[in-house]
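Agenda item 2: iron/sulfur cluster complex prediction
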Amino acid sequence: MAGPTRSGTPDRLCAEAVELARDAAAEAARPQPIGDYLGAVAEGDRIVTHYFGSRDPGYPSWRWSVTVARAARARYVTVDEVALTPGPDSLLAPDWVPWSERLRPGDLGPGDLLPAEADDARLESGVLAEAPGEEVDEEEPAAGRGVLTDVANELGLGRPRVLSWVGLQDAADRWEERFGPETPMAQAAPANCASCGFLLPMAGQLRQAFGVCANEYSPADGQVVSLSFGCGAHSEAAEVPKPQRPAPPVIDHLGADPL
Ligand code: SF4
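Presented output:
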């Protein structure tokens, strides 16, 4: 392994403290032994780092770095820091990936923020305008305002961005994968969700293909399900027939007298 190459004249007492540095490295590396002494470099005035090879099988070509120092006019050298550091030929982790590219669905915790990027393909521009319901004259019946507001919300009025076609397709694909017609549960179901009393209809562009299951006994309770999904808890599933009680035994009184 190539030795350290940093230039500079190391402090004599610090450079001579090889055994002090070796003991510190051996202590930190335990239970693995440390390798050969690789040299020293001056980090600054009266600060020197000594290097020892690593014999840890998980860190090939890494090295133990022990930084020692002494105060001005002091004769005693002390250990400042011990660390396992990569050498020029060390096996290193891949380049750092931004956190936003490392997240997976389900990683978001309470208090975390994950704003969508400005060019997120799942979103497209909405219509920034006041919902018509808010502009309606006070004399207009409240029921009418509610209908207008519902229509405005569904159209995306008042929201800066709404789901794009890509976002809709992505959502539909995910939901179909979890609760779609191809799942084993749906294949074994007596009927599909479209005819189930526990299905809550959805609003929006996907309402003709999806709804929400509201049956606590279903594995899809509270989830968006494809209308072609189904499970054994379907509201109209055939009742399981009760087992018939066996008939009482018939005793043949002709062949034997009862005791
Ligand atoms: S109970 Fe089963 S069949 Fe009914 S809506 Fe829920 S998932 Fe669909």
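Discussion summary: The pocket of iron/sulfur cluster is lined by residues 193, 196, 198-199, 213, 215, 218, 220, 225, 229-231, 233-234 (CB under 6 Å).
Owner for follow-up: CH.
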